[in-house]
Amino acid sequence: MTHDAVSRCSLRCPPAVKVKVCCIASVEEAALAVSLGASAIGLVSHMPSGPGVISEARIAAIAPTVPAGVETFLLTSLHDAAAIAAQHARCGTTTVQLVDHLPVSTLTNVRMLLPTVRLVQVVHVADEQSVDYAAQVAPHVDAILLDSGNVSLAVKELGGTGRTHDWQLSRRIRDAVDVPVWLAGGLRAHNVRDAIATVRPYGLDLCTGVRTSGALDAEKLASFMAACMGACTGA
Q: Which of helix, strand or coil describes residue 63?
């Protein structure tokens, strides 16, 4: 399906599952993602590792160009509630995505400081502890995002790995929590149908799978959106 065909179809029959395109690096990439049906974009601030990092100044320049109704996610690796709130004030996104595993006490403080900002806690799915952690934090955030990082490494992986994880564990988390669940990690056009069927997520989050040499690839994103729409409509 061509870029233009996906754009027309997304206006007529948007997929039941929302799609967030992460690692957005410019106003042009944001516009491309939105034109192909993205429900949200991700803007990556400083990280210990992984792709897509841009300056806070660039995040602040991109965020206000995104149309109303499309969420803008600030990905932050900060751990202090006051620092997270200050970073959000500088960047001006609609949503804060907390990419490291934060304790409930920190989430409570972030909520107090940012009462009108949507909070999304990332859970890096590895084992039973991931299920337990998701259940603990879900009541304190607006959504959970399930990814394939590793928070136990000396240099933490907090996203953008391009790897899938155990979707059966993700489905258990999805069934155990009362907030929307986004699924990330190694999603491609060829596996999105299985991902949706297995996990039944609220939304999908992708970065490396729709990029070529680091740049957002219109054809790859169009193919992913077409596959997503086919999975959601049974086509």
A: helix
